[in-house]
Every structure is written in C-alpha cells, then in structure tokens.
Amino acid sequence: MPASNSLNLSGNRFAVAYRLSCPPEDAWTRAQDICFEQTVEFPAELLPPGEIRDHLVGRVESLEELEPGQVEVLVSYAVETVGAELTQLLNVVFGNISLKPGIRLERLELPDSLLQRYQGPRFGRQGLRALLGASGRPLLATALKPMGLSPRELADQAYEFALGGIDIIKDDHGLTDQPFAPFRERVERCAEAVCRANRETGGRSIYVANVTAPEEEVLERALLAKGAGAGGLLVCPGLTGFDTMRRLAEDDRIALSVISHPAFLGSWVTSPTTGISHYALFGQIMRLAGADAVIYPNWGGRFSFSRDECRQIAEGCEAPMADLKPSFPTPAGGMSPERVPEMLAFYGQDAIFLMGGGLHRDGPDLARNSRRLLDLLLQYR
Amino acid sequence: MPASNSLNLSGNRFAVAYRLSCPPEDAWTRAQDICFEQTVEFPAELLPPGEIRDHLVGRVESLEELEPGQVEVLVSYAVETVGAELTQLLNVVFGNISLKPGIRLERLELPDSLLQRYQGPRFGRQGLRALLGASGRPLLATALKPMGLSPRELADQAYEFALGGIDIIKDDHGLTDQPFAPFRERVERCAEAVCRANRETGGRSIYVANVTAPEEEVLERALLAKGAGAGGLLVCPGLTGFDTMRRLAEDDRIALSVISHPAFLGSWVTSPTTGISHYALFGQIMRLAGADAVIYPNWGGRFSFSRDECRQIAEGCEAPMADLKPSFPTPAGGMSPERVPEMLAFYGQDAIFLMGGGLHRDGPDLARNSRRLLDLLLQYR
Questions:
Q1: In this predicted structure, what is the pLDDT of residue A1?
Q2: Which chain A residue lies closest to B51 (C-alpha atoms)?
Q3: What is the pTM of this model?
Q4: Which SS3 state, helix, strand or coil, does residue A350 take?
Q5: For B43-88, how does the pLDDT look when each residue is reduced to its tens digit (9 = 90+)?
Q6: Is A47 within 8 Å of B146 when comparing Cβ atoms?
Q7: A52 and B268: CB-CB below 8 Å?
Q8: How far is it, in rounded angstroms, from Cα B149 to Cα B273?
C-alpha cells in the first residue's frame, strides 16, 4: 500500500488515491467526475471563473493502470475545503462517491500542515506500553463475556484475567447499559476488580470500558469510567461516528487510552471494488480518530480478512503521519493460544493479541489459562 | 420488501431478516452463527444454561430459499439486549456480521414495545407540509452551491429560490464551516434571506442548515441555526453517526425538521450481497434516527440506484412503524425539470424533489427558474 503513485503537494492541498474499476479509456472522465462530485457538486460549465474553478475543485494529479480494468487515480483537494474537521475530511474524501460503484478509497496523502490539526492517538504504542509496563512482547487483551452475566460475574472474570497477567481487559462490545449489567455498576465493579488484582500481583493491567452509547451519554459514561478507575475506553466508531472517538481521545478531562472496535464497519471493506481499503480505514482513519489500538478480525479466524489485508492494517497503523503516534494493530476474532507462534511471526512484537472465547476453552480457571497464554508468549520471545 | 417471511413476536423479542448468499444446505449453520456472533459471541458449548442460552442468544425463526443460492433467514433477538439505544440496536442487528461476506440486512421487524422507545421524525410528512403550507403536490428542495461562494452570495441564491417558491432551501452538504463561508455568518444570512423573501411573497419556504460537524460542535451549531431562524437541519448520519441525528431530532430546544443526507453511507448499499437494503437503511433506520426527509440518489441520475431500489426506499419511508411518522423520500442527484413528469408518476405526491445544479441550467435568474419548476409541478397536479 505504500504509495508508488504519490506526489509532493504544497501544504495547501492534500491527496487521495482511489482505485477505479473501469477500462483505462474511461478513467480520466471518472476521475474528473470525482473532482467535481466531492467538492462543488456543480456543472463545470456553470462554475464562476477564478478561485473556485482553479483551486477548490478537485484536481487529477495522476492516473496509473494497476492491472487490466483497475486504475489508480490520485486526486488532490484544497485543504480549506476540509479545515480541521474530521467529519468534513471524510466527506470530501469519500462522501458522495461512496454511493457510486467501482470506486475504492485506497489511501490518504495528508500534508503535515493538515495532520498537525489532529492529535491522533493519545498514548500510541510507546505510551500504552509505558502505562502497562510491558515491553519486548506483544500485549495481550481479552473481552468480558458473554452478554447476560451480571456485573459481579463480569468483575470476577476481570479479576481472574488480571491475576493471570492479561494486559487489557475490555468489555465485550455488546455490553452497553442493559438491565443484566447496567453501565455504572459494571464499570465500577470491573475497574475495582482489576485494581485489586494488580495490588496482589504488582501488575498493571487495565480495564477498558465500552462507552459506545447514545450521543448524549457517551461523554458522561467516559467520565464515569475515568472516575471509576478504568484505564481505557472501547469505542465502536461505526456506531458512534469516527468523530465521537476523536473527541474522546482528545478530551484532557478523560485522558484515557482508546481502543476502536470494528462493529458496523464491515460494509466498508467487504467488497474489493467499493468502500475503503483496510490500510486507510483501520490504519490511517482510525489514527486520525485517535485510536491507540485498532481491533479487527484476524486472518484465519472466524472472519474473512486475508493475510494481505491484515498486513495492510498493520502497515497503516505505523505509516508515517507527521507527529501522529502509531497505534497497535489488534487482531481478534476466533484467536486461540495455539495460534500465538504464527501471529508472532506475522505481526512481530508490536501488536495486541485479543482473545475472547479462546481463553475459556481450557477450563474455568481463567487466571491459569491467562498465565499459560502469557508464558507461551514469553517463551517465543 | 414487505415481509412474506415475517412472524408475530411477543413484545420481548424483535426480529431481523437477512439475505444469505450460500447454498441452502449451509443456511442453517450460517444463521446459527449469526445468532451467536451478534449476541454472546461465545462458544455455544461453554455457555451457562438458563436465561443466556434460552433467551439472550439470537434465535433462528425461519429460513426460506428465495432463489438459488439466496436464502432469507429471520433471526429474533431479546429486546433487553438493545434497550432503548439506537447505537446498540444497530450493533446487535449488524455489528460484527457486517464484517462477514454474504450477509445482507434486509429489514427490521420491531415490536411496538421497542418502537415506542423512539420518537422518530418530529414533523413527518404531515408536519412538514403544515410547516411549509404545501399540500396536494410534491415538495421542492434545492441546495445552495457551489462550495466557495461567500455567505452573501449563498444568501442571494437562497433569496432567489425562496422568491421562486422552492419549499426547502438547504446548504449543500459540503458547506460546513470553511473560511470562504463560516457557519454562523452563512446561516444567519441565508435564514434572513429566506425570511425576507417569505415576507415579500407570503410564502413559507425554509432554510435548512448543514450541522454535520465535529462532535463537540453539532449541538451548538444546531442551536445557532435555530436562533438564526433556520427551519431545519441537514445531517449526514454517515459522518456523524445515526444517533447524533436522532438526538438532534428529539431535542425540544431545537424542535426543527431534520433532513438526512447520504454522504459516506454508500458502501452500505453498493454491493447486492453485503451491507443493508435500501429499504432498511434509507427507510427504517433513517426513521428511527428521526429524519423527516431522506435524501438519496434517484434512479436515472448521475448515481446508480435502480428504480426498484428507489421504490424500496419510498416504501421504507412510509411502512407502518407503530407511532413513528412517515418521512419523505427525497430523490436527488442529477435531477432536472424535464424529469418532473416521470418522477411524479413514480413517486406520487408524497415526495420531495431535490434539484441542485439542474435549477441553474436555465440561466442565472434563479427565481424565474424556480417558478417555472413549481408551475410545471402544478400543471401535472
């Protein structure tokens, strides 16, 4: 995914690479259509001359045939069309044309002048490792589940996982504020349980609370989680919007790590000819939106991302983006301890391995199962 | 799209129809997978017996082969898994499985007990007609554009459109808070211009302000628009999240009509085997999220929705949903006055025809162009 087809833009334009599924002879017309559709949305012949036509309309910077019927086009846009708004950046980049078939957003090429308007991940890899006191190995994460357990039962799980040395113990993304596990009670109990286990072990595990919630409650729940002693927030940006996650990551009153979950984002990546590349969606956009760790379904599990798509995500999580910190690729979805060696070989140390159900398969002693997993990981170091 | 395959559920369960692309012999296994993936996300054999297994796990209610390789499955879920949260409803309905290929969300079947937790469109068709004083004909809408005009130029346009009798004059969805047209100045000028035209004509046109914005500014901009005299809000739920739109629609301090724009929603509907049906996305979900009018690209314009898909949207906008008001289908995207007769034949009176660039093609006198369009519409009444 690194750009063969990139260019140096002055600070007042940014660029987007799209993959068009069309015969090469149609590519210029389709690329021109993108330039207008994403900016002025107006008939070219009726545009007033001057600034609008010369600067605000998108501009085709290059075209390159990748393979028969696949053309990569690089379109540049004026920075002032988007300002510092992530919502508007996504709008100009892929708003209307997301509705047209045969256009896939491949990658963003954002100048430092634009990137400087984003804080990005608050902790990033280094910060999260420092918080957790874990170096020289991938981090381990798990999810509290199944939905339906009481806060007390979930907290018991959290305690066991922390006792066993799991670094990040997060709510399952299906836990919100249901009668069987109301938000406040769940979060208070789970945070306390992890804290208690840490006192006993000297460890630094964190509990991560799911704050995917109705718009008017997200901030309140995040502050409540902070107050209760949670060490991070889980957000599903497909449900809340990417900008809600960005806001949570940037809020200094919260100042917690942020982990993104891919729920309700699938349709962006399930078709090879439309949507957004794994690199841009789970790498670049998640970082603009402040994710310290990006959960996605690993190859070979119960989902269908390929090895290559997962590699793209890992690349997008660390590709240079001005001062934005790299985030952790966090493969999940049907992982099990047996897969640790191949995941290590594939991802190296800078990843978080998220196992949910897989940690329950070796019997009910979750602390022991966790410890075994950690030992396994250290053994391959 | 009306359900051949529906069932009567007690008030404590709701159902979702999915279209699976798979051989019929695999359908049961895939349907079972959905039941677990969307709720407990846990190995079946490890679930504790009782309430979780018997009630919280999704349940396959029926399977029906629609055509070779296409099976419709109806899955029911417990209402307490979602409560009154739209974010969590979307999560249970399609969160994780959006990431799996070959599953398309076709329609929601929500019991009144669940629908009663939603306010839905504040105005609906009747309310919007009353507000605009327009009956017995489709409503007319247009967009202020192109991006790059000053607030004064946009306000001049708005004035002309209102003078010519366009009912709804909205910001182009690309106008947010850019240096060439800052939000406050644009909204104040445009609202004032439409108000002034109304005084001159005795008309009741409204200006609709785009409040798609960074999370922490959406509410502020909506209140500012309200204070300035706007008659509605434009929201791109693909950018803000659906729940932000719902919140704006429900907020009594705002109490403005809400129009949804489809930007950044395309990947949900560009593949026939994944994503969400036009009926569910632009009909049912938009109504749950409070849209009085739902913009989408009309068939035959510069986008690629088919006649049938547009018909599904129109059906979804008015299908019975307890006390939720029907919304207006608002076809757009390369519309022109010449198409009025066929659009009338297709949609009938209960639609909003949105024309942007098309109103500029007959010369710079926008009031005259608008009047001609309105006359054309009345002529076919």
A1: 42
A2: A148
A3: 0.96
A4: coil
A5: 889 998 899 999 999 999 999 999 999 999 999 999 999 999 999 9
A6: yes
A7: no
A8: 41
Measured CA to CA, the distance from residue A353 to residue A138 in angstroms comes to 7
Chain A residues near residue B241 by CB distance under 8 angstroms: 215, 239-241, 244
Smallest Cβ–Cβ distance between A99 and the set B97, B239, B303 belongs to: B303
Using CA atoms, how far apart are residues A195 and A231, in angstroms rounded to an integer? 10
Q: How is residue A312 written in tokens? A: 């793209």
Burial of B318 (0-12, 13-18, 19+ CB in 10 A): middle
> What's the pLDDT at A335?
80
Cα–Cα distance measured from residue B221 to residue B242, given in angstroms and rounded to the nearest whole number: 17
Q: How many other C-beta atoms can be found within 10 angstroms of the C-beta atom of residue B325?
A: 19
In chain A, residues with a C-beta closer than 8 Å to the C-beta of B304 are: 99-101
B150 burial level (CB within 10 Å; 0-12, 13-18, 19+): middle
Residue A65 tokens read as 């045939």
Nearest to A175 by CA among A206, A196, A148, A139: A148
Please choose, from the candidates A267, A302, A221, A295, the residue with its C-alpha nearest in 3D space to the C-alpha of residue B93: A267
The Cα–Cα gap between B149 and B164 comes to 21
Please tell me which of the candidates B90, B146, B304 has its beta carbon nearest to residue A42: B146
pLDDT along chain A (381 residues), means of 10: 50 94 96 97 90 95 96 97 96 97 97 96 98 97 96 98 98 97 98 98 98 98 98 98 98 98 94 94 98 96 90 98 98 88 95 93 94 92 72
Q: Report the C-alpha gap between A286 and A237 in whole angstroms.
A: 9
Closest CA to B246 of B264, B206, B214, B219: B219
Q: Is A174's CB within 8 Å of B99's CB? A: no
Closest residue on chain B to A238 (Cα): B241
| Residue at A179: amino acid letter | P
The tokens describing B14, both together, are 């709701």
The whole-angstrom distance between A17's CA and the closest CA on chain B is: 17
Phi first, then psi: give them for residue B8, nearest 5 degrees: -90, 120
From the candidates B12, B47, B90, B96, which should be mutated to test the interface with A, based on the most A CB atoms within 10 A? B96
* A100 contacts B214? CB cut-off 8 A: no
Among candidates B46, B87, B265 on the partner chain, residue whose Cβ is nearest the Cβ of A240: B87
- B348 Rama class: left (phi>0) / alpha (psi -120 to 50) / beta: left
Residue B91 corresponds to which tokens in the numbers above?
Answer: 């999560």
Residue at A153: amino acid letter: E
